[in-house]
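Inverse folding, one chain.
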C-alpha cells in the first residue's frame, strides 16, 4: 500500500514538472533590417574601421533571466514562465552586435580585442527593460545610455540617452521582445546619425 501511494506521489510530481516546463517560454531580441539598411549590407562597409561592443551593464533589478513587468510606478514583478534566453546584458549586447553587422556600418564588429586595438568602442547601460501594464494598454519600455568613443584618444563621439515606450499590439508577453527590438533599432539609427555627423 505504501509503495502504491509513493508511486502516485512521484507520478504527480513528474506530471506537474512536465506541465510547468512545457509552459516556459524563452525570448531574445532581433534586429531586422530592410530597405536602405539592407542595401548597405551588400556594399562595402561605410567605414573601414573596427568597433568593439563592450559588455552591457544592466540595472540590478532587471539583470535577471525572468522578464519584468510593472503594473504601477511603485511595483515590479517577474513572470514565472517567461524568460530571456540569456541574461539581459548579453541579450542586448548580441542585439547591438547584430545591428552593426547587418547594417555594415563598420568593417569589423567584435566583442574581443583581436588583430590589434579597435578604432572605436561602444558601451551601453540598461536602466529599464520591462513590460509596463496599464489597465487596457500594455507597453514595452526600454531606457538606456549608449556611448561611442574613439579608442586611442578616449574622446566621446556619441552619447545617446533615451527612455522609450512602445505600445504592444496585444496584451501578451510574447509581444515584448519584438517591441523592445524595434525601440532599440530606432535608437541605434539615431546613434549612427550622430556618429556620421561627428566623423564626416
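Residues assigned per position:
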Amino acid at each position: 500500500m505504501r509503495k502504491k501511494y509513493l508511486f502516485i506521489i512521484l507520478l504527480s510530481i513528474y506530471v506537474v514538472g512536465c506541465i510547468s516546463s512545457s509552459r516556459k517560454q524563452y525570448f531574445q531580441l532581433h534586429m531586422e533590417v530592410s530597405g536602405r539598411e539592407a542595401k548597405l549590407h551588400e556594399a562595402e562597409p561605410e567605414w573601414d574601421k573596427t568597433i568593439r561592443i563592450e559588455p552591457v551593464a544592466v540595472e540590478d533589478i532587471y539583470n535577471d533571466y525572468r522578464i519584468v513587468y510593472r503594473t504601477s510606478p511603485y511595483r515590479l514583478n517577474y513572470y514565472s514562465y517567461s524568460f530571456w534566453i540569456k541574461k539581459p546584458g548579453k541579450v542586448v549586447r548580441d542585439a547591438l552586435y547584430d545591428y552593426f553587422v547587418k547594417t555594415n556600418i563598420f568593417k569589423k564588429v567584435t566583442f574581443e580585442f583581436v588583430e590589434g586595438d579597435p578604432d572605436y568602442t561602444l558601451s551601453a547601460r540598461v536602466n529599464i527593460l520591462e513590460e509596463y501594464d496599464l489597465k487596457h494598454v500594455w507597453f514595452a519600455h526600454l531606457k538606456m545610455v549608449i556611448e561611442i568613443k574613439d579608442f586611442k584618444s578616449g574622446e566621446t563621439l556619441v552619447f545617446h540617452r533615451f527612455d522609450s515606450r512602445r505600445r504592444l499590439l496585444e496584451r501578451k508577453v510574447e509581444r515584448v521582445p519584438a517591441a523592445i527590438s524595434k525601440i532599440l533599432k530606432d535608437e541605434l539609427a539615431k546613434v549612427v546619425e550622430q556618429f556620421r555627423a561627428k566623423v564626416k
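The first strand starts at residue 25 and ends at 27. Residues 2-199 form a domain with the Rossmann fold fold (CATH 3.40.50.10610).
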